[in-house]
């Protein structure tokens, strides 16, 4: 039985390309998710209190 090394080599190249593309897509999605989770919270607004104004007392 003769092994066709051209077909095996082609399949291996396609598998390596598929793995590389999957890793790249995964890293992009990870970065998007990380940015979403880091920026998802509502930032607390600063209350600028004027010490001279008594209406700002809480």
Q: What structural keywords apply?
A:
mainly alpha, 58 residues
Describe this structure in words.
With 58 residues, this protein is mainly α. It is 60% helix and 0% strand. The chain has one helix spanning 5-39. The longest helix is centred in the middle third of the chain and has 35 residues, at 5-39. The chain is rod-shaped. The mean pLDDT is 85. Keywords: Membrane, Transmembrane, Transmembrane helix. The chain crosses the membrane at residues 6-23.
Low-pLDDT residue intervals, each spanning 5 or more residues? none
Structural class: mainly alpha
Rg, nearest Å: 29 Å
Task: Give the termini distance in whole angstroms.
Answer: 89 Å
- Along the chain, the helix and strand elements come as H
Largest sheet: number of strands, sense, barrel closure: none
The tally of strands reads 0
Count of helix runs: 1
Shape: rod-shaped
Mean pLDDT: 85
- Give me the oligomer status: single chain
Helix fraction bin: 55-70%
Binned strand content: under 5%
Provide a short characterization of the protein structure:
By secondary structure, this protein is mainly alpha-helical.
Helix-strand layout with pairing:
Layout lengths: L4 H35 L19
